[in-house]
Amino acid sequence: MSALGVEGWPTPATERPVVLEARGLSVDYAGHEGAVRAVHDVDLVLRRGEVLGLAGESGSGKSTLAYAMTRLLRAPGLISGGQVTFHDGRPPEEGGVGSVSLLDAEPDQLRRLRWSEIAIVFQSALHALNPVISIEAQLTDVLAAHHRGATRSERAERAADLLALVGINRDRLRSYPHELSGGMRQRVMIAMALALDPQVVIMDEPTTALDVVTQREILDEITSLRDRLDFSVLFITHDLSLLIELADSIAVMYGGRIVEQGAAKEIYDSPRHPYTVGLVSSFPSMHGARRRLSGIPGSPPDLRNPPPGCAFHPRCPFSDEQCRSQQPALVPVPRLGPETGPGRLAACWHQQEAGVTDELAGVKGGPRR
Amino acid sequence: MRYLLRRLGFYVITAWAALTINFFLPRLMPGSPVQAALDKLHGTVSPGVVKALAAQFGINTKASMLSQYGHFWSQMAHGDLGISTSQYPTRVTTIIGHALPWTIALVGVASIISFALGTLLGILIAWRRGSRLEALLPVTTFLSAVPYFWLGLIFVSVFGVTLHWLPISGGYSSDLHVGFSWGFARSALSHGAMPAVTIVLASVAGWMVGMRNMMVTTLGEDYVMVAQAKGLSTRRVAFTYAARNAILPNLAGFALQLGFVVAGSLLTEIVFSYPGIGLSLLQAVQENDYPLMQGVFLVITVVVLLANFVADLLYVALDPRTRQEA
Predict the structure, then answer these.
(1) Cα A326-A329-A331 angle, rounded to 5 deg
(2) ipTM of model
């Protein structure tokens, strides 16, 4: 599960080199009544070979953040501040481009980096595949766009290899998207994402549209491919339970901000932000002890009219005067025990108390395997 | 394949129904139009001649409706549409045969130009939203909203009568013979220019607005974003991914439009006195020439059905989803 395979305790990811980072990134959506800020001053660091999970409810800004980082955001979305840097892991002699500021990159440079280094798997493969051209054409056009030297038959061969990589027979090359099952389409999307051997793959809810069994197959496929090909993954989902299994580290978003961040296991075992506590206690554990499930009362904040102070305070059992008036910063969590690794951050005035809610949520203590 | 056969069967049935109506309509009308035409001849020609003519036009026969119907179909099978009453004794097929090429060349070419131009502009306008190209939208929409005959008359008065740039009527100079010569080609082109331009101006907005709207919708699709994320060239994203999908409804509309090339040319041919099928129809109506009218209607019916079939073929060729067996 972890990149270096130490069961249960991921090697502190903080020592691996950074491949994609966002600094102070803010995104606005222009509207009739002024701009709505969908992403607030977000710092996010994806390290080499890491699976970083980005969790949050619908409207929390997680997909917007991912599209802003790849500059695929569409009008009326607008990046209003911040930096996104891609750090090429390959040495210059192998075509590495060093560090590139994606928000400043020229269209041509951006086009070269796209897919060859940063590929994306979308939620609905049915909508992400062009319905009127064949699977082969959609796999080979990206090869043609980036490797001008290859011949047509070499590209076709590579397309067949890519399908084989995700367990699809090559005779499917001639199929059209509507002729494939949902799981197959998502496999094709994954194969397409890996076509140019990218360093980063962004996965935007890749399994949400699939049934549980297919979801499991696709997740196993992603895990095994990642272990073999060693790309970094930014995995976006509303399903925290899935990230606990899959991700090395997790960032939890709420109301356009990252409210808690840390190693997957720490997030699960000792959530510090009351929102994360709520998320963790709203799904059953696959392996751990039985515990009481509880949802989070209330609904996500209205971004046009966000609550003052901490965006979560109207739904939070710990909120007080300070929460209603001041926005808590994302700060390192005080070490509570040996399980609190570095890079552990939370944005809550009551981090200590939220930790105490371990008892409330019934997840106190260490791992229970 | 089965889909196409099913469609083909549908068209055969439709054609049969249309021709049958074409057969019954004049026979159900009170009084016979041909009889009316013959009545005018009374006194000028001998009763024997009238009787012979009546036989020729197929009226006043004692034959049963069923045997007339059978006779009608055998005529159809031989491509015999009867004899024109206004241009007696010219056969209807001859008149249509002379008029049809002019209409098809003029309106067909103009329609194709209009569709290609409108679609291309629609793609560009949608792709570069907010650019100056958008000014084309109100301008062309205005031109299509203006009554066509008025637009045509303004052209005639400005470019024909005042500036003497182009001839104002006809399909070619009357001092030339129809044939393959440079002089004739030049003459036909200069006579066709004004009608063609007015047709394009009046119809380009429809294709442009339709294509732009579909394109804007398609640009919002995930697969277009994927194409951009794949780092494909702008041209491939815009055409193979966005326009390739957006054009499907427009293409179907165009194939249907081709069916109305024959009928839709009426106003153009009247304004510019163009020797096409529309003008023939006008003359037929003015002179109560029912056999000719029937013939023209028949041609229009057949062409519309053919165009529908072409639209189906196009759709099957362009959209793999329609190839799925239901």
Answers:
(1) 145
(2) 0.81
